[in-house]
Sequence to fold (136 residues):
Amino acid sequence: MTRRIWKSGGRFEEVASYSRAKRIGPFVWVAGTTAIEPSGRIHAPGDVEAQTSYVLSRIEEALKAVGAEMRHVGRVRAYLTDMSSAGKFAHVHGTVFRDIDPVLTAVQAGLTQPGLMVEIDVDAVIHDENGEISGI
Fold:
């Protein structure tokens, strides 16, 4: 069975002993991901659309690192600092996941730094175009 982890180099990954992405067999989990750039700066402070796009691109990178793709995502959880911006989040999510249609949960939550607007985590199952999973 395939087992892979991927660490993005985030400052808490070693301290908290976690991976950005983990794959066991066909199952993949990507940890809560925010718009903190590798430099430590917040990407587009206060802009939920720009942050959602940035975060989803980071999630795509994490998925690829363990052999998965966005089309394999079955569940998305989003944590928004302000639910009045949910429509802007939904627009970007809808563009990225068009014709993939994962289940989606969005809740309002406090995030770790002022200016962060969204945190997203995903679960995925690697499958073929017919939804079949090989090796199980």
The helical segments are 11-15, 48-65, 86-96. The radius of gyration is 15 Å.
